[in-house]
Specification:
Two copies of one chain form a homodimer. In chain A, helix 3 (96-106) crosses helix 8 (285-294). The first copy, chain A, has a single domain (80-334), classed as Fumarylacetoacetase-like, C-terminal domain (Fumarylacetoacetate hydrolase, domain 2), CATH 3.90.850.10. Chain A contains eight helices and 20 strands. Chain A starts with 8 loop residues before the first strand and ends with a strand. The longest helix of chain A is centred in the N-terminal third of the chain and has 17 residues, at 49-65. In chain A, strand 16 (227-231) and strand 17 (234-237) form a beta hairpin. Chain A is 20% helix and 24% strand. By secondary structure, the first copy, chain A, is α+β, with helices and mostly antiparallel strands. In chain A, the strands form five sheets. A six-stranded mixed β-sheet of chain A has the order 6-5-18-9-10-12, with helices on one face. Chain A has a five-stranded antiparallel β-sheet with strand order 4-3-2-1-13. A five-stranded mixed β-sheet of chain A has the order 7-20-19-16-17, with no helix packed on it. The interface between A and B is large, with 59 and 58 residues.
């Protein structure tokens, strides 16, 4: 069971190993210290969360008292994804407005039972991208899209948990870019087996935060903040992550665990953030294009998908303008193999 | 790069930890020794395959010379899945006859481009079941089915590998039971996002074997042996794993790696084994039921799906009757939570 009062900010530092080094980050996000020899990696912490997270928190409190003087300056360039490789990445689609616009794009009805149970897919979790690493794709014709999303990382979740129990299994909250190759999606989904090639590696903001550290910004098992997306330095969207959602994270986890356990370190997403208000912009290019189409822009004048050299920036801003998870800041690199 | 000449049999022993202890298994499958302090787990070996697998092999050779006297008796009851938790489990469907019969059952056409590129889905990899652990389901009404399959475990696979390069990334071959909840499949696939609840945890035979250890039983990047399935002690099927396949493992891996890297320890399956010859029986109950239907058995007289207490046994027999991967031998337990 997780402790909802835990107040921790964690990240993973590139150190040449596959899993990196677990970093304890200061509440200001400006300083960091190694989590120490007893818990070397994020996965190791999640494996033993009930014992080690409270220990880390008491260490964090001492550091707060001493002003983090022994710490070093936090630099997101040094960060890997909080979990550089994970045993599970399961993503849902709980934003009604996103479903509405995306299925308009696909020219298909919204999937059956969309309002009755979370619509989920099993994503690839073997390699996650750090906040400043490039989005590498092999062909612009694959229509490279960003998708700004919130996810949680769980402790162990037994099969058949209730929604209430599922809420207690949420260890950390993260911000991510679920890069999608829109050009490959229709062909893959037509086969009926879900996404594979169309969902390349996912990118993560550097800092994973406990629900307790979010304070009032964690509400009804959702992040209660807007998420800001910038494309090449310009505002692209700023939808609120807790607006018009069909299901919250506890409900998604309970759905996932109906016939299976989830092991500690499972990453569970809520899908592309989307608000009905067009003023909020979009958290993916496809949705922005559908909105343009609906407002009469001709097909050949719609905004383009991501191109070589484009820069994507995603962050969630707290009430005092602070970057809660740090920022994703990535450049697109089109790189044909061979 | 893997070394095709490597001759290793490996397993994972339950020791109270999440990843177990890596076991070096004798060529006879009768004896084992700990792989030693430098490579404690299967994942650690795969992470550093090029360096550590040859070291393990030279140790295996010394043990062969001394008759494995220092070893202990190999007991599959002590085994976890070879990789108890994995960063990826991607499964294909390459047996033409299985596709033909299954889509007959679904009353749908075989997916588009089935012969042009491997049909694959992203499976859940966070928790794998050992060879003698029960198949736990919450409801017989979910229609619990077995699926006997061969898979490979890869080393690191870069994005965009050729088929030839992909073949060199195959570290190990494994035998598994891809348990499926047939009753949940139509509802999930109708949503278009693939399997989730309908594919609970997968079970594995205890011994993972290098292609080099398979000798002539590894042919054209496929296992060239029949796989025997028994249900409650009776022969259920014995289809050959290298008969009438659309794609081999190198082709599947190259397809998976088109837009993504695969990290070391990715498990890549070929789908439910199936032969056109009805005498070979079936590797899943659904297929056997479709065959019964086609031969005129009325719906209410078809053989049932798995029930509480049923026993499933799966093994692959070498030319001298030896169990190449050891046997999966599981009992079904229906266990409603709460």
């Amino acid at each position: 069971m997780t402790m909802p009062f835990l107040d921790l900010r964690l990240a993973t530092r590139r150190n040449g190993s596959r899993d990196g080094e677990l970093m304890l980050v200061s509440p200001s996000g400006q300083r960091w210290l190694s989590a120490g020899p007893t818990v070397k990696t994020m996965q190791a912490l999640l494996d033993n969360w009930a014992l080690q997270a409270p220990e880390l928190e008491s260490r964090r409190r001492s550091l707060d008292a001493s002003g983090w003087n022994e710490g070093e300056t936090f630099d997101p360039d040094e960060c890997m994804a909080p979990l550089p490789r994970a045993y599970q990445w399961a993503d849902a689609s709980v934003y009604r407005n996103h479903a509405r616009l995306i299925y308009q794009w696909r020219n298909e009805p919204i999937p059956p039972r969309y309002e009755d149970e979370p619509l989920v897919y099993q994503g690839g979790s073997d390699g996650m991208i750090g906040p400043r690493e490039p989005i590498v794709a092999i062909d612009e014709a694959h229509l490279v899209d960003l998708e700004a999303e919130i996810a949680v990382i769980t402790t162990d979740v037994p099969m058949g948990v209730t929604i209430e129990q599922a809420a207690d299994r949420i260890a950390l909250v993260v911000l991510l870019n679920d890069v999608s190759l829109r050009g490959l999606i229709p062909g893959e989904l037509a086969k009926g087996f879900g996404f594979y090639q169309s969902k390349p590696a996912t990118s993560f903001a550097p800092v994973a935060v406990t629900p307790g550290a979010l304070g009032p910004a964690w509400k009804d098992c959702m992040l209660d903040l807007p998420v800001r997306i910038e494309l090449n330095g310009e505002r692209f969207g700023e939808p609120h992550a807790n607006s018009d959602v069909v299901f919250n994270f506890a409900q998604i986890i309970a759905h996932l665990a109906r016939t299976r356990c989830l092991v500690a370190g499972s990453i569970v997403g809520a899908g592309t953030i989307s608000n009905a208000d067009p003023e909020s912009g979009s958290a993916c290019i496809t949705e922005a294009r559908v909105r343009e189409q609906l407002s009469g822009v001709p097909l050949d004048r719609l905004r383009p998908y991501l191109r070589h050299g484009d820069r994507v920036r995603i962050c969630a801003m707290g009430p005092h303008g602070e970057h809660v998870f740090g920022a994703i800041d990535q450049q697109v690199v089109i790189h044909s193999p061979g």
